[in-house]
Each structure stands twice: as C-alpha cells, then as structure tokens.
Write a structure and sequence with these properties.
alpha+beta, 155 residues, four-stranded antiparallel β-sheet, three-stranded antiparallel β-sheet, 2 domains
Length: 155
C-alpha cells in the first residue's frame, strides 16, 4: 500500500466526521433557537398580560351592617386604573333609585384607584336575606362593559 493513498483515505475520513459533526451541531443549534423563540413568545405574552392588568380597574363590593336596619354598601377600586361610567345595580335596578337606598345617595360615575364609594341601604327586618344581589358595571382602560356580579354577604 502506498503512503499517499492512506493519507487520502485518512483525509476523507476526517472530512466525513467533520461533516457529521457540523450536521449534528446545526440540528442542536436549530433546536435551541426554536426553544429560545418559544420562550421569548411566552415572555412577550406575560408582559402583554401585565400591561393589560395595569390598565384594569378591579372593583369589589362589601356590605357591613352598621346598626339596626342599616347596611353600608361599599364599592372599592383596588385596581391600577380608574373605573368610569360606574353603575351599581341592586336587585336589577340602579342603587340610587332603589326604594331601600336610605338617603337617596348617589354613586359617583368615576372611581379612582384605591378609592371607594359608600351607600346606606335599609335592610328591613332581620328576617330579610343576609345577602345582596349586586351587579357592578364599569369601563376602564382595558375596555368597556366590565361586570362584577356575585351575591354580597352582609357582615
């Protein structure tokens, strides 16, 4: 056997292994890039959700019995955005016009973050239900027609 022929065969083997190595490296790099792109999309979605949450008003009602026959209904904005066009419904009618609104108090139409609004409500006798059917509708920076509708227990 000729030494130059062995040298050529050795070079071919090295070239073949280099080709295999580069194909494996390309596949791993491509897979890593796909994973990186996927994680980046997830991160972008998380940031979009955070931005959306920062533009929301979160309204929560509570009802506290103050004295015999009087319940104070409080609507608090715990969100980061103002609640506009605020409407509070009690038994499917505006709370301002409800016959049991103690002092015919108005709910403001704008509720800033970390602000609350209170209305006195005549609960009648103690046999009345211990929950109020409240529905709160408002607009904020994230959209219009936000709704909170759950029974509120009188504490």
């Amino acid at each position: 056997m000729d030494l130059s022929k062995i040298s050529i065969d050795f070079n071919a083997i090295i070239a073949f292994f280099a080709l295999i190595f580069s194909i494996v490296a390309f596949c791993k790099s491509h897979r890593a890039q796909r994973v990186s792109n996927h994680l980046q999309k997830i991160w972008i979605n998380i940031e979009k959700q955070r931005e959306h949450d920062r533009s929301k008003a979160l309204l929560f009602p509570q009802a506290i019995k103050k004295r015999s026959g009087l319940v104070e209904v409080t609507v608090a904005n715990t969100g980061a955005s103002a609640a506009r066009n605020l409407r509070v419904m009690l038994d499917n009618q505006p709370i301002q016009q409800h016959p049991r609104n103690a002092f015919k108090q108005e709910i403001p139409s704008l509720l800033q973050p970390r602000q609350d609004a209170k209305v006195g409500y005549l609960s009648g006798n103690d046999r009345d239900a211990q929950t109020l059917n409240l529905k709160i509708i408002w607009d904020d920076d994230s959209g219009t027609g936000q709704i909170y509708e759950e029974p509120v227990h009188i504490r």
